[in-house]
Structures are given as C-alpha cells and as structure tokens.
Amino acid sequence: MSKAVAILINFNGRESTKRLVLILEQFRSIATTLIIDNGSTDGSKEQLGRSAYNKAILLETNRNLGFSGGVNVGLKRAMEKDVDIFLLINPDVVISQKDLKHLLESEFDITSPILHFARLGKDVYDYGGRVIWPIGRPVHREYASLQKGVPPIDYVSGACMLIKREVVEKIGFFDERFFMYFEDV
Description:
The protein contains 5 helices and 9 strands, in the order E-H-E-H-E-H-E-H-E-E-E-E-E-H. By secondary structure, it is of the alpha/beta class. The two termini are about 30 Å apart. The radius of gyration is 16 Å and the shape is globular. Strand 1, helix 1 (about 15-25) and strand 2 (about 30-35) form a beta-alpha-beta unit. Helix content is about 25%, strand content about 30%. The chain has a 6-stranded mixed β-sheet with strand order 3-2-1-4-9-5, sandwiched between helices. It has a 3-stranded antiparallel β-sheet with strand order 6-7-8, with no helix packed on it.
C-alpha cells in the first residue's frame, strides 16, 4: 500500500488536532503528519510541537493564512517528501484505518469519503457538491441517508481529501484568494 503525508490545518483547535494526530500516528500508511498551525493563541503550538509524536511535524505560520494558505504551506513541504499521495484532513474528522485504506486504493486522482455528521440533531451525509455554473454557486450534495451509487459531483469537500502528487504538479496549489470556503471547489 502507498504511503501518504497527512496535512492538518490547526487554528486554536489544540484538543481535536491532538486527538487526530494520535490516531494518524498509528496508521502505517501515513509516512508523516504535517500540522500547520495558523497562528493559534490557545497553546496549540506548545502542546502540538512536543516530541511526543513519532511522525508529526509542526509548521508554524505565525498568522492565520486561512485554509488555502495553510494547505499550501503543507503541500509545499509535502512535495519535498518521497510520497505520491497527500491527505488533507480537518482536525475534527474521525477516520479509521479501513477508511484510509479505501481512500488509498482509489483509482481517482482526488478522492473523498462520504462525510457523515449531525446537523440540528439529524444525520447528514455529504457526497461533495455540484456547481451551478450559470451563477457560479457551489451546492453540497447532502442527504439524510446513504444513497445507492454516487450522485454526480463537481468537487469533493476539503474536510477530508486525498490528492495524488501528479494533480498538484499539474494544476498547482490552492487559490489563496479564497481564505476559507470554496477553495476546495
């Protein structure tokens, strides 16, 4: 199985970031976890920078670059590694080894799991989204239950996205004009 570099953006999310890093430390398919700290003021840098992690590296931006800027810091560092796969994952995402194995086995250049979460006490399954091209508006494909088959989508969510190196080499980095939201579209 291929190895990946995980990239996490942290902004004052010390506890959820720490929890995810400890999970990723156990995955043999993760070569390195890059924690990009976007100028946190909650003690994240001090706690996440400790040497308690075997595969995690803390990169400090010293200011909030937004999601796209933080991801780009991580991708540029990850491109220095001898890996062909990058896993962008938000600190509040829960992922298992089985989930990651399915992502790594994907034939697609960009892959995301179906995201499951609760909104107002109800289950939501997010499949990614479509763009209403005449008005340039992205709309998530969210359902109250799992769907048979995958509905047509134009993009996957940046909350958990596996990207192959060749994509970054071909199209470049995230557009930093989008500080947060729509940069994954």
